[in-house]
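Entry for the shared binder. Reason: the reviewer on the internal report wants the predicted structure included alongside the sequence.
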Amino acid sequence: MSVAATTELEAINIMLAAIGEAPVNSLTGTVTADVRTAQSTLNEVNKEVQSEGWSFNYEYDVVLTRDAGNSVALPTNVLRVDVSVANHPDIDPVQRGLKLYDRKNHTFSFTEDLKAEIVYFLAFDELPEPARRYINLKAARVFIDRVLGDDGLRGYTQQDEIRARAILMETDLSNADH
């Protein structure tokens, strides 16, 4: 039985096919420079797209708990965090590395746990298929530009990318329950 969702290996092979390279059977062990470039590009575009914040990686009312030193450490997969001024009017927290910093009081120390909205980075295989498709096609276009610089190929994949983003946006609106 075949899995419906695009795997990372399939995404890399789509990118390789876009430049006329043969597919690979594995992404582990010794890989070619083109495979490494494709992997790097896919990861880069994945982070870029997910940084926008979509229904699948955006969470509301996340309680951020202070540690013994009253600082708030963030998980390693946080792309963006927003602490509401309505809930916490006396502080102005921003992300600095993997910690929160209070710009208003010039400190990493907080007097209470915080409620935030967070955009998380998810692994490629945790994404819904419309997100995988859009990220894959955008990464393929960027990959073509970096490896070949071919305007003819770029124009073809750019149309696919635009359609894939529209499908992702439609799916996201449906799932977000606005």
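Summary line for the report: The chain has a mean pLDDT of 93.
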